[in-house]
Amino acid sequence: MDYKRLKFDECKEDVYNIRRKVFIEEQNCPEEMEWDEKEEKDSLYFVAFKGNVAVGCLRLRNIEQNLLKMERVAVLKEFRRRGIATELIREAMLYTQTETSDTSIYAYAQVSALQAYVSLGFTVLSKVWIEDGTFIPHQTIFWGTPVSIEMFLKNQLEKRQEVMKNMMPAIHQFYRKSRLTNKDSRSISFEYLIFII
To answer: CA 20 to CA 29: how far, in whole Å?
Structure first.
């Protein structure tokens, strides 16, 4: 198995083929959620090849200074349980250690693959949540120093508080317009909070 680090233009067809089969066909993820041309071009890809056939991939995307997001980890069904995804993740971690300074990685990992990430040193930072439109359980994971984990969590809290601040007027307006009982209002409030957190 060969593992290559590539730019999007160098692996576009291979990456599309793998992700279409894994995420859209197997996992029934909405196609419109899978492709974002800007994100694709802004990412660095790690691709596993068996001969000249691409069988697995992941991407790293720069989110902010010293923080990368690992996304779209996928291996074709017939090549799973051979350590390919684990090796792709190791390659991404090695790149992060050697090619970037003081950089950390976070990801939204599918719960079914969580143990592999933990065995590589990732820390689980969230409870289980369902990704919009997919109905697939995920957890937020992080790889970095304790200080960088603390900074990441603080940043996420600040973002969540800003979302809440911006959403509260709309939620209050919704309550005023509706004729819901207190019990119904509490359940809707809970659903809104789960959605935005």
So the answer is: 9
